[in-house]
Amino acid sequence: MIKFENLTKDKAKKLLHSHLPESVSEFLEKPYTLSEKQIQYYQENGFVKLESVIEEDKLSIIRQVIQSSVLLRKESDKRTLSEKSKYEQSFLQCGYLCWDFPAMKQIVHSKRLAGIARDLMRVDGIRLWHDQALFKEPNGGATSVHQDSSYWPIAEPQFTTTTWIALNNVTKENGCLYFYPKSHLAKREYVDIFKNPHQPEAAKKYHKEYVPLNPGDATFHSGLTFHGTDANNTNKMREGMTIIYLKDGSTFDASDERNTAHKSCSGLKHGEIIKTEFTPLLTD
Q: 71, 91, 155, 255: least surrounded by Cβ within 10 Å?
């Protein structure tokens, strides 16, 4: 059973169905200024680390709101870690949170975060793909190496990016992300991380780079970049929040039947522009 310090079910419900404090909601609309060096690093390496994307005085309430969403989503799961599948042992995975909880919608639909995605990819408009809280339990397992976009029916994977926001200290010991720089230029390879993972052949010629984060720091990585994590070898939860973005005008690719039932593309036909109730435009 999942528990968080100073957080009850009733408090979680109240937080999630209330508006964020005005100072926090205003901050989430405030632009984050990227340097040309940071943009170039992302373009060349397929990922970038950004410091203080969420400022310290705003992080406390944002973290508690995200913890609340995980608490309510997982409240009925009484299994111990050892009773879960190997994939489930790698993290608590809670997606599409913004559609269930108003406070989460304010976070996930943040123009600050979407603006970073737009500028890093050098595109005009950004749509939401979906959100996911990824909390790695104490002694939780490793996350196998993979490319995110291999699970998405998007015809332009080079114009997808994920932000991974650290809600607490994220270290090599508790399962920070590692990336393979420049691997976004490699051939895409499907890895069945759910049931039968393998070490992707395309990633083997690249070196592994661990990226620890302080609370409020974030990484952005291309949907084509190979990445993974080690296990959480500590007695505390590793807390991360992800938001996935795609370029406005991206199209639905139904060529891989493994991905065609994706919720964000409900009702679309092959080649149609991705513009559904789950993929709102987040930038002006």
A: 255
Confidence of residue 99 (pLDDT cuts 50, 70, 90): very high
Asked if the structure places residue 137 within a domain, the reply is: yes
Residue 276 covered by a domain? no
Q: How far apart are CA 249 and CA 12, in angstroms?
A: 36
Residue 38 counted as domain residue: yes
CB-facing half-sphere around the CA of 207: CA atoms within 13 A: 2
pLDDT of residue 13: 98
Work out how many domains the chain is built from and give that number: 1
* CA distance linking residue 64 with residue 59, whole number of Å: 8
**274 located within any domain:** no
In which element (H, E) is residue 229 found? strand 227-229
Q: Which residues, at least 6 apart from 215, have a Cβ–Cβ distance to it below 8 Å?
A: 56, 59, 63, 166, 167, 168, 169
Torsion of CA 101, 276, 91, 237, to 10 degrees: -40
* Beta bridge partners of residue 241, listed in sequence order: 133, 165
Mean pLDDT (the chain, rounded): 96
**Ramachandran bin of 6, using left for φ above 0, alpha for ψ from -120 to 50, beta for the remaining angles:** left
Q: Minimal CA–CA distance to 68: which of 29, 102, 35? A: 102
Q: How many helices (H) and strands (E) does the chain have?
A: 7, 10
Predicted TM-score of the model (pTM): 0.97
Domain with 96, as residue range(s), is 12-265
User: For residues 170 and 62, what is the distance between their CA atoms, to the nearest angstrom?
Assistant: 17
Indicate the SS3 state at residue 99: helix
User: Is pLDDT of 1 > 80?
Assistant: no
Q: How far is CA 25 from each of CA 105, 106, 107, 125, 177, rounded to the nearest angstrom?
A: 11, 7, 8, 21, 28
Q: At what angle do helices 56-73 and 9-16 cross, to 10 degrees?
A: 120
CATH number at residue 34: 2.60.120.620
